[in-house]
Amino acid sequence: MPEAPRQDSSTQPTDEELRTLDAHWRAANYLAAGQIYLLANPLLTEPLRPEHIKPRLLGHWGTSPGLNLVHTHLNRVIRSRALDALCIWGPGHGGPSVLANSWLEGSYSEKYPDVTRDAQGMELLMRQFSFPGGVPSHVAPEVPGSIHEGGELGYSLAHAYGAALDHPGLLVACVIGDGEAETGPLAGSWHANKFLDPVHDGAVLPILHLNGYKIANPTVLSRLPQDELDALLRGYGHEPIHVTGDDPMAVHRAMAQAMDTALDRIAEAQRAAREEGVTERPHWPVIVLRTPKGWTGPAEVDGEPVEGTWRSHQVPLAGVRDNPDHLRQLEAWLRSYRPEELFDAEGRPVADVLACVPEGGRRLGATPYANGGLLVRDLPIPSLDDFAVPVDKPGTTLHEPTRVLGDLLAQVMRDTADRRDFRLVGPDETASNRLQAVFDASGKAWQAGTLDVDEHLDRHGRVMEVLSEHLCQGWLEGYLLTGRHGLFSCYEAFVHIVDSMVNQHIKWLRTSRRLPWRPPIASLNYLLTSHVWRQDHNGFSHQDPGFVDHVLNKSPEVVRVYLPPDANTLLSVADHALRSRDYVNVVVAGKQPCFDWLSMDEARVHCARGAGIWEWAGTEDGSREPDVVLACAGDVPTQETLAAAHLLRRHLPDLSVRVVNVVDLARLLPREEHPHGMNDFEYDGLFTTDKPVIFAYHGYPWLIHRLAYRRAGHQHLHVRGYKEAGTTTTPFDMVVRNDLDRYRLVMDVIDRVPGLAVRATAVRQRMADARTRHHAWIREHGTDLPEVAEWNWNA
After folding, report:
1. Distance between CA 338 and CA 335 in Å, rounded?
2. What are the pLDDT digits (tens) for 272-305?
3. To the nearest 10°, the Cα dihedral for 619, 625, 630, 631?
């Protein structure tokens, strides 16, 4: 049983301690403001001149003093209580503060030795901020101690809970800006405390920073009466602790007491759960911090109030280079922090400034929990042969691919039961997506009330279900970034809800790959099922395969997209994805019964190739080039392509047909554009340079054209896919409506192979007639034609 952090009842800091806390806070404020403004003269050893000022003033001051206050006081409790802690900095563009604090504690110089902890390094720290060739204005991968990109708002609290899962000794503080608190994802994230296990998980301490304003408007929560805000937070299951003021020493005293009170409550809740077996869900503390926006900055500029208003959001003094009054005001502002008391003659922080700073890996900028590649272990994945389905002949037996995968995931759950570093997340769809075998190994995480009718709810479960794709994504990102593994299972159409979140994660991975001090983390793996072609029962609202298009627009060194056509290829792809590092893997696979095409050995080889010829499916004999290539990607398109090949074999036996299946979509790209891409020799050998290629694709057809537009044979490429013709109908009618059916594919062959249009007119007419019969049949019987419903490869 993990130990709870110890309590510390000494909630009253001494005057001396308050003095050193204030020194640290002033130093961080000075460095934060200096990063926005200064090119040179970092210690103000001479009067400020225009040439000391950056030509373009970029950055955000308004949130910085509050973030610095939190960092200072987290240092205090981490040091006094010997805590392992991580902080998520939610407010947008909080970079100056977190950079300043990591430089003060020395972790920044450890990662970037040229930015030394002295005057020379201070000048470089300031110069590089929001400067060409430097660092961004928000908390980014380059910032030690960060796992959260601060440029896009709404995800901080979900990331914090994901980081706390299965880290029982970890405190995750999360600063939530009051602008960020207005977003939907953040509002949904308050419910995450109903999933936090006080026995096996760490604790999350939300710090709601109400400084009153966004870019140009007041914030909703800051304008609520305190009793209404308290009622809201208590309704979410939190007990608020308020810190309010603008007098620094009074705020320091109140903040120190609030931190101690919150951590004592957390420690007691964990002790009761871990030592006494208490199962009642705790009401976790939340600190509500009200300080002025732009606190300690200019009170007024050009006759307009600035401190405590929206005008302090970005750069309070914008005309410093050209306006002597602004320059004088900036110098007075910077000197108000008394830098000569905070740094010695060489620019090193003095002892008072560093009195609260923890040591070693407990510094917030040095914690290994913010650099998950240091903690991640290989996932124990069992042999695929233990889960593979037997395939004596292709296309004669059927299995539900995701159900087969569920058995594998259940074993992974069992094999990680003690180490607890694998989670399955999804929006209320684990069983719907046929993955319910995992419930034999782990229940669903749940800390709220239960009823006798409930199934699989488990206070210590590692399956996470909540009807918020944002929360699922945020949990998994936080989990992966702190050194663990996982899989996000989702209906294909609704994964678009997290389009923007995956953007940010891809950017994070792309940037962190360029930082030698950030080792690789486990990949973010999506399993998209209940897909477009088998949402015939739910209809048009549930039919959208476009997430693949969205992802393939992103950094090619990071993104991977797989469309396994059957159960064994899904196992092979999943094995690869779960073992991989620093990728975003998107796997699209069906949950409905699907033909088994390849044995496990064949599936491994085919998936390793990513795209290949299925010789048994075509009719080419090797004596000449094929007359036509039937290509396919996706389970339903593969079935329709093979059914079309079957029809061609019967009706046009002299036609030489090649069948190509694509599992890895990036194989279609040129090698120079994607690491998985084919060079021109490979591509031309597979698809030919001058023969018609009829490509049946799972998603929007123009994606295939975009991937292959530079190939020599692109003018001969004809793609069929989803074209927004969806409704509630039969499974086969979905493909007919979108012209992806076997009969249409045969017609396309006849239309595009030179000479067939005349000599195969009768065959084409039969295909068109079959489509007509289909329309009449489903309207009378409500089911698909028997020749379709009962088809198999060996029929």
Report:
1. 5
2. 999 999 999 999 999 999 999 999 999 999 999 9
3. 120
Enter the pTM of the model. 0.96
Residue 255: strand pairing partners: none
Under DSSP, is residue 285 helix (H, G, I), strand (E, B) or coil?
Answer: strand
Look up residue 457 and give its two tokens: 């709810």
- Given a contact cutoff of 8 angstroms between Cβ atoms, the answer to whether 728 and 537 are in contact is yes
Rg (CA), the chain: 30
What is the rounded distance in angstroms from the CA atom of residue 770 to the CA atom of residue 756?
19
Q: Do the beta carbons of residue 262 and residue 203 sit within 8 Å? A: no
d(C-alpha 690, C-alpha 306), whole Å: 69
Q: What amino acid is encoded at 262 in this protein?
A: A
Amino acid at 10: S
Yes or no: say if 173 and 132 are a contact pair by the CB < 8 Å rule: no
Q: Could you read off the pLDDT of 262-281 as tens digits, one per residue?
A: 999 999 999 999 999 999 99
Q: What does the alpha-carbon distance between residue 23 and residue 512 come to, in Å, rounded to a whole number?
A: 33
Query: Cα–Cα–Cα angle for 537, 541, 547, nearest 5°?
Result: 110
336 alpha carbon, distance to own chain's centre: 42
Helix/strand/coil (H, E, C) string of 631-655?
EEECHHHHHHHHHHHHHHHHHCCCC
Eight-state DSSP code of residue 55: S
Look-up of token digits 């959260």: 148
- Burial classification of residue 324, based on how many CB atoms lie within 10 Å of its CB (0-12 exposed, 13-18 middle, 19 or more buried): exposed
Residue in the block written with tokens 């240092």: 75
What gap in Å lies between CA 462 and CA 706, rounded to an integer?
40
Tell me the β-bridge partners of 585: 525, 560
* Angstrom distance (rounded) from CA 566 to CA 655: 27
* DSSP for 516-531, written as a single string: TTS---B-EEEEEES-
Is the CB of residue 635 less than 8 Å from the CB of residue 568? Answer: no
Of 113, 111, 102, give the one whose Cα is nearest residue 517: 111
**For the segment 215-227, what is each residue's pLDDT rounded down to a tens digit?**
899 999 999 999 9
